[in-house]
Amino acid sequence: MFLVIGVITYWLGSNLISDPRAFLQVSINGINNGLLYALIALGYTLVYGIIELINFAHGDLFMLCSVFSFAVLTELFGAKAPGAKNFALLLVVLLLTMIFGAIVNVTIERVAYRRLRNAPKLAPLITAVGMSFVLQWIGLKWVGSVPVNVNTVLPATKYAFGGIEVASKTLVIFAITIPVLILLVFIVTKTRRGRAMRATAQDKDASRLMGINVNQTISFTFAIAGAAAGAAGIMWAQTIGTVSYNLGFQLGLIAFTSAVLGGVGNLYGAVLGGLIVGLIQAYNDGLAVGPGQRWSQTMVFTILILLMVYRPGGLLGQSSQEKV
Amino acid sequence: MTKIEAAHHAVGVNNKKWAIGFSTVVGVIFLLNVFVLPNANTQVQRFFNAWFSLNSLAEIMIWILMALGLNIIVGYAGLLDLGYVAFWALGGYVAGWLMSPFLSQFQVNFFGNPRPGFDQGIHFNVFLVLILGGVFTAIWGIIIGGPTLRLKSDYLALVTLGFGEIIPQFMLNGSDIGGINVTNGAQGIGGLDQPKIFGYTIGTFDLPAKFLMVSLMAGAMIFFSIRLRDGRLGRAWLAIREDELAASMMGVPLWRTKFSSYAIGAVGGGIGGVGFAILVGGVYADRFNFVISIIILAMVVLGGMGNVWGVVVGATVLAWVNAVGLVQVGELINSTFDTKFNFPSYQFLLFGLLLVLMMLFRREGFLPEARMRMVMNEEKLEDVEKVTDDKKIGSH
User: Fold this and answer.
1) How far are the Cα atoms of A98, B220, B300, B303, B319 from residue B296, in angstroms, in the given order?
2) Long-range interactions of A282-285: CB distance < 8 A, separation 24+
3) Do B356 and A131 touch (CB under 8 A)?
4) Which of residues 297-356 of B touch A (CB under 8 A)?
5) Residue A2 in domain
6) How many domains is chain B partitioned into structurally?
7) Residues of B in contact with A127 (CB under 8 A)
């Protein structure tokens, strides 16, 4: 474990010293992606926290949301270039996409997972995998089998802070993602609904006796998770600039790794994990001395497997050794 | 005869019937293709080529092998593996490394049968390669399963998912690992040796012999699956699948038992991988993707988790649908009703919906064991007194 940390420290340190400007530049990109990962990871963490299900379909829900935002904003509203009007449209569609994500996620829960809540664990897991395939198929039929380029409405200008260039779309990501994250965390930790969610996660029977409507609470959790995926979806389409049907599989795994890294079931952990994974990926892809982009996915999975071995509870979570 | 003995006897008779059926089908297909079809008229030949080509039938045998391997993990021990394709790939590359001129730094010939003029590289005997393929994948099963099986079971699903993604990616990118060409990247390793079994060389286009070979392998896997299930280890797996706590109280070592199921299941994948490499005559990285893992899982689920013959039937049906049926039936429907559906593009929907619907309405599969049916439809004990409808609380 210490060996791994040592190697990573040495690798990052030597890059920082040889070219600090490029290093910071890459870090900005990493945080940019990391925020999106955090939004998706939130969905995994929320759902896992409340019904102990790894929702394999969540990554594909994110993909479907990005496709939806593309279809509505770019195709339907025709917002293909930067401008004040188009930016206003972006905010409208952001809201629409979040609602769309929430509705789809709640529907999936209602149709499939709810009926399997008391079934053996294998059943909901397999169902989630099946759902992920169904969503992928919808995406495939919606945008086709090749990645589609999205004309972003975000301006292409760049600002320089002490020699580091920050694209304005990165700033927009910050401006939109961070409030959404804060809002979601606020809902879960501070509101009555959020308290019901946490109670349900701890003990369904006890919370039912306390007068909590368990089914509704679980639906609400799925709605929040879906909304987060929706926000991530539209932001991905606008900043990364492509949508494709098989995006969800890869992003879902990355996001789940983030959730596990932070500690599954822990909201702050999901955000922290997303940022860390985003940074690691950016360093891997962008630094002069590094394995390079084609090993990007392998890096993420290796982190996942190492985590499972050495710290399954994640950075902020408790150990999840099998209870007997 | 006591009740238990009678039940065992019934199972044995049943197994015998199925085994005779399986051998008969294999024999009939073999004889049909060797003696009847070459002499049949072109229309009959064309029909068989389109709907039941020997190549697709041989591939079905490989799928059966794979599904039975996964069945040991998912069906017997109740662990979810979503990256089974990794074992297929690893087995395939073992065959690629040990039976071809590819690793030309070496020149080894251990009872192998290199093609004339391709003496460089490693050439091992087929049987040895099959064994080594199994051993190699078992080692990987140990590396992956060892640490993760101590965690909650759904973590295994995730780690295997990652593993099933890393291994093919490594194969795809592995043309330059520190300057050494390990996997030949996207081009894959072609030109495998023609296996020589007891003096008979199976040529590249000798499909009937290849079919017979993979059928024998599938038959052996069926045999081992049945024998394993009734043995001490198999009963321990079933006990864990049904109730971990009770099993461990009865003295079943949880981790070791789960672990052995994962490693043994991996062996099935490795041997199947070697068989497939020989069948195709090479190993190509781009074939190994997540969809394959899910198709194998769907086979196990469709047939009935844990029931060997159910899985065999499930694998046969789905493999045929996937390779031939989707295209052929689609063409038939399109030409009959003059429509233009692109049927193969519905593959995702088909397998996804299949998994969801099976889980919702027939969790135990179509040919389940009585035991599995009870397991899958059992509600948790604490849920008996649970009020399923929230509104009822108010009305009491």
Assistant:
1) 35, 19, 7, 11, 9
2) A282/A26, A282/A27, A282/A29, A282/A30, A282/A33, A283/A11, A283/A12, A283/A15, A283/A26, A283/A27, A283/A30
3) yes
4) 297, 301, 305, 345-346, 348-349, 351-356
5) no
6) 1
7) 355-356, 359-360
DSSP strand E in chain B: where?
99-100, 107-110, 121-124, 196-197, 200-201
Q: What is the complex's ipTM, to 2 decimals? A: 0.82
For residue A291, the enclosing domain spans 22-310
B340-354 per-position pLDDT tens digit = 777 777 888 888 888
Across the range A41-54, mean pLDDT stands at 86
Convert the pLDDT of each residue in A8-32 to its tens digit: 777 777 777 777 777 788 888 888 8
Which CATH number covers residue B361?
1.10.3470
- For residue B191, what is the DSSP state? -
Residue B73 sits at the chain A interface (C-beta within 8 Å): no
Total number of domains constituting chain A: 1
Rounded mean pLDDT of B92-110?
79
B386 and A CB contact within 8 Å: yes
Q: Of chain A residues 113-142, which have a CB less than 8 A from chain B?
A: 115-116, 118-127, 129-137, 140-141
The answer to whether residue A220 sits within a structural domain is yes
Q: pLDDT band at residue B69, thresholds of 50, 70 and 90?
A: very high
Looking at residue B382, its pLDDT comes to 46
**Residue A142 lies inside a defined structural domain of this protein:** yes
Residue from the list B170, B173, B294 with its beta carbon closest to the beta carbon of A133: B294
Which amino acid is it at A272? L
Q: What is the CATH number of the domain that holds A91?
A: 1.10.3470
Within-domain flag for B2: no
Average pLDDT, chain B: 80
Task: With beta carbons under 8 A apart, name residues in chain B contacting A116.
Answer: 359-360
Task: Check CB contact under 8 Å for B352 and A322.
Answer: no
What range does the domain containing B291 cover? 17-377
The answer for B231, left when phi > 0, alpha when psi is -120 to 50, beta otherwise, is beta
Does the residue A319 lie in any domain? no
Contact A216 B363 (CB under 8 A): no
* Per-residue pLDDT at A259: 86
pTM equals: 0.84
> Are A321 and B170 inside 8 Å of each other by CB?
no
In a domain, B383, yes or no: no
Domain assignment present for residue B302? The answer is yes
